[in-house]
Design a protein that fits this description.
Blueprint: H1 2-35, E1 38-46, E2 52-60, E3 69-74, E4 79-86, E5 91-100, E6 106-108, E7 113-114, E8 133-137, H2 147-151, H3 157-165, E9 171-176, E10 179-180, E11 189-195
Parallel strand pairs: 5-10, 8-9
Antiparallel strand pairs: 1-2, 1-11, 2-7, 3-4, 4-5, 5-6, 9-11
Length: 196
Amino acid sequence: MKSGILKFKILSITILIIASLSILLFSSCEEVDRHYRSKILMLKVDYLTNNFEGGKELLFHQPSENFTIRTEYTPPGDFGNIKLIYEELNKVIFDGDIIWMGLGQIIYPQNILPASDFDHVLTCDYYIPRGGFENVFNPQNTDYDYSPIWSSVQGLVTVRDYLRSNPNATVKLFLYTPSVGVGNPEDWDWIIFLKN
């Protein structure tokens, strides 16, 4: 009889400890989410193949309803640069070298996750952003068809989450050309931004 009561007490205490830890863990996850009021999803798509190559979520403590991108561009006499700033927060969201007769690289963000780290939805539906597309850096005013670029990312679970969070979002993008002059289009990528 005593061993049955003892087992029951031990089981009750174990359940209480597990429940307490679960609540604590869940609360700390919510606390982390509350600290990041604005989130930007950056995605990279190959220029020639339209294959999704990877992405990164950028997290900011400051809240912002709007999402305007300011461009700072230094043309490549030899070495140039393209920097994109989230204007409402005055935060850099992209920084990349552009090299004449060479190959620049992305300075920020670092540690871009590979495409294999992103899950795809299991449905065949197709989402089109209600706010359309905005090319934030197009100095030649080139007409582009954004459909093939968007097709490679619209089925990502993270993209769908962002679109649900901000259904009227405008997808912002630009063509990053780290090599110019006798530049190699195999080095070029579309960079896409979504706000939560």
